[in-house]
Write a structure and sequence with these properties.
This protein is α+β, with helices and mostly antiparallel strands. It has one domain. About 40% of the residues lie in helices and about 25% in strands. The chain contains 5 helices and 10 strands. The strands form 2 sheets. The protein has a 6-stranded mixed sheet. A hairpin with an 8-residue loop joins strand 6 and strand 7. Helix 1 packs across helix 5, helix 2 runs antiparallel to helix 4 and helix 2 packs antiparallel against helix 5. The longest helix has 26 residues. It starts with a strand and ends with a strand. Keywords: Membrane, Transmembrane, Transmembrane helix.
Length: about 220
């Protein structure tokens, strides 16, 4: 299970959210977190701190690159699990995605996405090129987008791809949301253990991480 700590240090479990919010909101939160950092992480980061089962590590250099790649794989896996939960009904669902102007425009032009809102972040002064898009797409279109991402073999560390998430909807129940959350947690825990086991670029550190995983 993964926890994100608030500035006051209060942990919140994604699994527990299913009991207090509408069906599917867990998936929206996961996707929203990814999209938030994709849109607002303007400055290059060179390390990350991870708390795994109460032991804390700093990932640098090779380990950090592997962590970034693991996160990109998590995003693909999350989208795949979301699509699988929607079934074969070709359901239309609300989505959001972000990326550079070229990346976003390419998605809109290449796939049949009904865009409802576009927010542009940055200007020539900030040298930030980000767009956040909300829209509606069928599960079939989402499968095409997922296949396009998978076929490209894109590594987010060298060739960023748009961050895509399915927003809360009636097609994904609370129990399905919880199951997806658990599967994604285990996916990340397995990947983190592999990076730590390889040791390259990994060092023990004090526990100040806002990213906490427990299995």
């Amino acid at each position: 299970m993964v926890f994100w700590l608030s500035p006051l240090g209060v942990g919140k479990s994604l699994r527990n959210l299913q009991f207090i919010i509408v069906p599917g909101i867990v998936i929206g939160i996961i996707g929203g977190i990814l999209l938030f950092f994709a849109a607002y992480n303007y400055y290059p980061q060179k390390n990350v701190n991870i708390n795994l089962n109460g032991k804390c590590y700093e990932f640098l250099d090779e380990a950090y690159q592997k962590y970034q790649y693991l996160v990109s794989l998590r995003e693909k896996e999350l989208l795949k699990l979301q699509i699988d939960s929607l079934g074969e009904s070709n359901t239309f669902v609300p989505i959001t995605f972000s990326g550079s102007s070229d990346e976003v425009d390419n998605i809109i032009e290449k796939f049949d996405v009904n865009v409802t809102e576009i927010q542009t972040i940055g200007d020539q002064k900030t040298q930030v090129d980000k767009k956040i898009v909300r829209g509606v797409a069928s599960s079939t279109i989402l499968e095409q987008i997922l296949n396009n991402i998978s076929d490209s073999g894109a590594d987010n560390t060298t060739n960023p791809i748009p961050k895509i998430g399915i927003l809360p909807n009636s097609g994904i129940s609370a129990s399905e949301s919880a199951k997806i959350s658990d599967n994604i947690d285990q996916f990340m825990i397995s990947g983190l253990k592999k990076i730590i086991g390889e040791k390259n670029g990994v060092k023990a550190t004090e526990c100040r991480s806002t990213i906490i995983y427990n299995d």
